[in-house]
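User: Okay, second chain of the day. Same drill as before: sequence in, structure tokens out.
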Amino acid sequence: MTKKIFRTKSINEFISETQKEGGMNKVLGTFGLTMLGIGCIIGTGIFVLTGVAAADYSGPALVISFVIAAIACACAALCYSEFAAMVPVAGSAYTYGYIALGEFWAWVIGWDLILEYAFAIGAVAIGWSGYFANIMTNLGFALPVALVKAPYEGGIINLPAMAIIALVTWINIMGVRQSSAVNNVIVAIKLVVVLLFIALGFGHVNPANWEPFMPYGWSGVFSGASVIFFAYIGFDAVSTAAEEVKNPQKDLPRGIILSLIICTVLYIIVSGILTGMVPYLDFKGQAAPVAFALQQVGYHWGAAVVSVGAICGLTSVLLVMLFGQSRILFVMSRDGLLPGVFGHIHQKYKTPARSSLIIGIITAIVAGFLPIGVVAELTNIGTLCAFMIVAAAIIVLRKKAPDRPRAFKCPFVPLVPILAIVFCGILIWMLPEVTQIRFVIWLILGMFIYFGYSYNHSIISGGLFSGPMETSNRKAVSQDDNSPKE
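Assistant: Same drill. Structure tokens below.
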């Protein structure tokens, strides 16, 4: 069994599965992918978590926290880019792990990503609901607490959170072209809002607010980095769109790297201005720190505009996360590790409609009935673990298939992957202990599902999904001399 759980699938085998009749439409280019990345990265991190991290962890050294998180993400992004260009297949880190490390580690990554996206979608939807309720109150239409709060927070149901998930799910089912077009408009709006904040806030920076610069020490800076890491998780969603990209060998690395660079620059500028405008302790308990900072210096109209931008920003995050989650479930189902319902492609829209619908229903229930603290805690640790496995997979595949054509090569291997593993490991260590315990419980649950269902239903095990496609895939494996063997 030990040998079988580490069985691998070849790159040719994955690619051959994407070329079957009834596959997804290839409509995305570098611009669309970059906008997808920005759409998922700029959102909760810049509009919500900046205040939390500044007040409770980093202080004005929040800038350094963003740099540390960015370094970890940059190393991981280079690893992702090599894989994405070489294996233009949906599934992101799950697919890469299957090729280099084998089925067991692929399952671990996939299970991590299910945790990451599902809980992140719920957390973002709850944040969206809070901004929406605030705007409605300012317009004189206060919503009943019973309809905007979870039962644990004194309400009955968070209806706006469920409604926005339903809307975004429908957009994703309609097709990637429609999803991308909507995302591009939303991203443009929130980028204008972020630039407006920079323009308004720059003249109100008081250097005295940066003293003391590191009130919680280096421990606080790294803890802050582990918290605001949530702000960067969106770039890996770009690679989940691989099967819908026109020229994946060039467009995927460009989309991943460009989106990360643009967002990192904006994060550093915004966090520096934010902590310079208002003393960091004033952000304690503030769910909308950017709007709060503008109000403190007299720009009430600017705060209102930022609130609208936050609504747009969080909507685009939901759009891309729901998109990425459905594609991961789709490819895991196609491999037999999850039931076939997740791998169904809608004949008209050419999207994994059933997968999108199931995710929409589950995440709507999470957002409607659980408080944000519960659903947000586990997102970061699942992402960090996935990043570490992808980095390790780069090192392994360079040994297993050194001659495999690579349209993009991660530089300085194994140094860059090792740095990704080290930085992500440090950030996991700095997360709260309760989060680590819950993550272990989630992994144990995943092991029961893998050995109870996935191990015996996997395509490469000759399980229930074996058949003509399996036979052709195995021929592809045997013809691929440079790929890892099963």
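The radius of gyration is 22 Å.

User: Thanks, on to the next one.
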